[in-house]
């Protein structure tokens, strides 16, 4: 939001802006209040690839740290797509990326994609565990009718079938007589509706109604600001619980295809590196040719000097620049896309900070601080090293490329 609001004459503009926003937000909120809570498993867009089956090899249950394959079968037209994923959902949460496609993809066999997975060491084995195969393209996701899941919870371990006439099981006799151990009764745990976090009382639907009524009745500009901020923050943070669709990001699709990358560059040397993340030998595996890798090395040096630990350029925290650039190629995660909404919240009122990173932004920042993830995205944004001008225009000028 541009900082154009003035303290006095701008107060009318601010009031009008808030009033218009309140009207739009109010209509959406009232629609939600008047309707039954919507199922987060919304109908997928017709363009989403349908998953027709999902299986694991070997079969569950899996111990912590165990390796296994997730096989996702899709409709024939979706074979060989790069947007298919398999992840672990714990108690209905968004799938964890335990089968990263950039490093653990086993390839396609017909219309079945194989992912090599590792069960997390910190997973709660008593939880409801599901492997979900889905299309992570924009507008699709793990909670649509085109995704498929397989329950791998401990409770799903099959009970052995006793064949009539088979061997007789003789109990072990201990002093004092045999001890009979009762068979545990299986408990069916319903799959919970996915939510990001429990909704606190101050953000309950009843309290939102009260806040909204107070907001409409208020004539005090400061009170309107406070009420709107509370209302906005609740819906922003807990939208899933109100049936307002939010979709956490699943790397590597939490990058945001900015119009350009780093605007604040102090390094202009454009050196070709022999060691470190920007080294040609480290880039040639991705960029494929010596020439392309050398150009990428220069861009990498320009953006980060080839440092292993690169400070994130958080210009949007203190200025009105739409910039939050991460890693060796300074991937700008400011701009939002349908793949990863709500990663970077603009400050609602014109004051510092200009942007407010939330959990999704933090996850994306951590992902792109890993050099190989950063290099992979730079390769994609530069169209295989053939177009650096679109996203690294200043580097192209400075490096005379």
Number of strands: 11
Q: Flag low-confidence runs.
A: 1-17, 30-45, 155-164, 166-174, 177-196, 245-266, 336-342, 346-353
What separation lies between the terminal Cα atoms?
34 Å
What would you call the structural class?
alpha+beta
Largest sheet: 4 strands, antiparallel
Number of helices: 9
Biased composition (Pro residues): 191-201
Region (Disordered): 151-201
Transmembrane segments: 12-30
Keywords: Membrane, Transmembrane, Transmembrane helix
Topology:
Elements: H1 10-34, E1 51-57, E2 67-74, E3 84-90, H2 101-104, E4 105-109, E5 112-118, E6 129-135, E7 148-151, H3 205-217, H4 221-238, H5 280-287, H6 290-304, E8 325-326, E9 331-332, E10 344-346, E11 355-357, H7 359-368, H8 371-381, H9 393-398
Antiparallel strand pairs: 1-2, 2-5, 3-6, 4-5, 6-7, 8-9, 10-11
Helix pairs in contact: 1-4, 3-4, 5-6
Overview of the molecule:
Helix 1 crosses helix 4. Among the domains are: 106 residues, Immunoglobulin-like, CATH 2.60.40.10; 47 residues, no CATH class; 119 residues. Strand 4 and strand 5 form a beta hairpin. It has 9 helices and 11 strands. With 401 residues, the protein is an alpha+beta fold. The chain starts with 9 loop residues before the first helix and ends with a helix. The longest helix has 25 residues. Keywords: Membrane, Transmembrane, Transmembrane helix.
Quickly list its features:
transmembrane, transmembrane helix, Immunoglobulin-like, 401 residues, membrane, four-stranded antiparallel beta sheet
């Amino acid at each position: 939001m541009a900082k154009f609001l003035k303290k006095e004459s701008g107060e009318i503009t601010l009031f009008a802006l808030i009033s218009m926003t309140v009207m739009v937000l109010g209509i959406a909120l009232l629609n939600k209040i008047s309707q039954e809570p919507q199922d987060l498993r919304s109908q997928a867009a017709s363009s989403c690839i349908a998953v027709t089956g999902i299986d694991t090899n070997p079969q569950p249950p899996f111990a912590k740290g165990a390796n296994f394959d997730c096989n996702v079968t899709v409709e024939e037209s979706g074979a060989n797509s790069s947007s298919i994923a398999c992840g672990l959902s714990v108690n209905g949460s968004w799938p964890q990326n335990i089968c990263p496609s950039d490093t653990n993809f086993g390839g396609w066999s017909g219309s079945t994609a194989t992912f090599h997975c590792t069960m997390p060491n910190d997973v709660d084995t008593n939880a409801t565990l599901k492997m979900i195969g889905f299309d992570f393209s924009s507008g699709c996701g793990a909670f649509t009718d085109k995704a498929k899941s397989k329950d791998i919870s401990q409770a799903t371990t099959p009970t052995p079938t006793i064949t009539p006439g088979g061997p007789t099981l003789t109990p072990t006799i201990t002093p004092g007589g045999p001890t009979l151990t009762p068979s545990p009764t299986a408990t069916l745990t319903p799959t919970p509706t996915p939510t990001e976090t429990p909704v606190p009382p101050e953000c309950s639907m009843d309290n939102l109604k009260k806040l909204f009524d107070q907001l409409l009745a208020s004539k005090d500009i400061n009170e309107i600001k406070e009420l709107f901020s509370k209302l906005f923050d609740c819906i922003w943070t807990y939208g899933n619980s109100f049936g307002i669709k939010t979709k956490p990001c699943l790397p590597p699709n939490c990058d945001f295809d900015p119009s350009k990358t780093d605007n604040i560059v102090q390094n202009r040397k454009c050196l070709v590196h022999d060691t470190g993340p920007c080294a040609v030998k480290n880039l040639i595996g991705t960029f494929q040719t010596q020439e392309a890798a050398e150009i990428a090395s220069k861009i990498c040096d320009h953006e980060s000097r080839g440092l292993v630990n690169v400070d994130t350029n958080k210009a949007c925290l203190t200025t009105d620049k739409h910039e939050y650039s991460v890693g060796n190629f300074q991937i700008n995660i400011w701009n939002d896309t349908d793949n990863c909404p709500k990663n970077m919240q603009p400050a609602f009122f014109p004051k510092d900070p200009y942007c407010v990173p939330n959990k999704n932004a933090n996850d994306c920042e951590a992902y792109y601080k890993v050099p190989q993830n950063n290099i992979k995205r730079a390769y994609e944004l530069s169209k295989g090293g053939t177009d650096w001008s679109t996203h690294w225009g200043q580097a192209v000028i400075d490096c005379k490329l």
